[in-house]
Amino acid sequence: MNTQRTMASLSLDMDDKWCYLKIHGDPGWEALPTYLPTFVPRVLGFLQSLNDLHITFMIVGQDADREQNHPLLQSLVAAGHEIGNHSYNHESWMHLYHEDQIVDDLVKAEVAIERATRQRPVGFRGPGFSISYNIMQVLAQRGYLYDASTFPTYLGPLARAYYFMTTTLTPEEKAMRRELFGKFKDGLRTNAPYRWRYNGSDLIEIPVTTFPIFKVPIHISYVLYLSLFSKTLALTYFRTALKLCKLSGLEPSILLHPLDFLGVDDNQNELSFFPAMGLKADRKMGVVREALRIMADEFDLVTMQEHALHFAQASTFPILGLR
Ligand SMILES: [Zn+2]
């Protein structure tokens, strides 16, 4: 009998309100408007109600640097969740940074996150899936266990066009954001996790899983978007994707966002450009709950760190050299 566990990991990019306004080019982000005081207790209660499910929270360094957020971030750790690094400045053009800028940003985020949570992150996700060989190299040199920034989908350019439909960005600002959510050719990237090797250091890459073969998104915000048309259709889509993952031996890693838990009743009017922001929070969380139950039926749900360690021990884990 095959007793090997089949895992799936869950992570949540803790993009604060200011992160979205900044990338969207909306005024007022500099004052760092936040919804974390509403969001954090809500998501903690939600995860606890799902058999005390533990996930990975990717934290933005700038938010960890604010004293007012420390009790909130500490409550995530106290509840047993993993803390990852989601960059300091949350700039989706991080892949354009020089090496010095990359090191500055990552170290600043690590220091702030460690001071706020007393946890040193071992995982990273680039803002807006921004990733470059230089970033991977710095992560490997700094002893990170895993990166989770690749998003193998053909739909990145479409998502970006949608995001900027209502923006007032200048052409220069748009140019900096031209790879937000990735390029069309990112669809050619692998869905399967692998190990990068570079000059004696290495890093496990865990892509944000997309629909096997078709490479269309299956992260929870996308499932919520589909639920605008039909909740049954959205959950059937998600279930089919996970079944295909299982059939093809792919252990998925699924992504969550704060806006999966915040709704029209939370008065976040400036964020109404997001597709599912017309729904009430309870309705959204109902869909999220069902989606996570579908996942739990198929897989053992773990944090990204547990998932990375499990891959690291697998004898047949693929290795890729870093250019
Ligand atoms: Zn983000």
Question: What fold name stands as the CATH topology?
Answer: TIM Barrel
Unreliable stretches (pLDDT < 50, length at least 5) are none
Second CATH tier, the architecture: Alpha-Beta Barrel
- Give the CA-based shape: globular
Order of H and E elements:
EHHEHHEHEHEHHEEHHEHEHE
What is the overall number of helices? Answer: 12
Major β-sheet annotation: 5 strands, parallel
What integer value in Å does the Rg equal? 18 Å
CA distance, first residue to last residue: 41 Å
Count of extended strands: 10
As for the number of domains, it is 1
Bound molecules: zinc ion
CATH class: Alpha Beta
| Class by alpha and beta content | alpha/beta
Tell me what you see in this structure:
- The protein has 323 residues and is α/β, with parallel strands linked by helices.
- The protein has one domain: TIM Barrel, CATH 3.20.20.370.
- It is 40% helix and 12% strand.
- The chain has twelve helices and ten strands.
- The chain has helices spanning 17-24, 36-49, 61-64, 70-78, 99-117, 133-141, 156-163, 171-176, 220-227, 231-247, 281-298, 304-313, and strands at residues 7-13, 56-59, 82-85, 123-124, 146-147, 194-198, 201-205, 253-256, 300-302, 319-321.
- The strands form two sheets. Strands 1, 2, 3, 8 and 9 form a five-stranded parallel beta sheet that branches.
- Helix 6 links the parallel strand 4 (123-124) and strand 5 (146-147).
- Helix 5 crosses helix 6 (133-141), helix 9 (220-227) crosses helix 11 and helix 10 (231-247) runs parallel beside helix 11.
- The chain is globular.
- The mean pLDDT is 90.
- It binds zinc ion.
- Zinc ion (ZN) binds at residues 13, 15, 19, 86, 90, 127.
- Zinc ion binds next to loops.
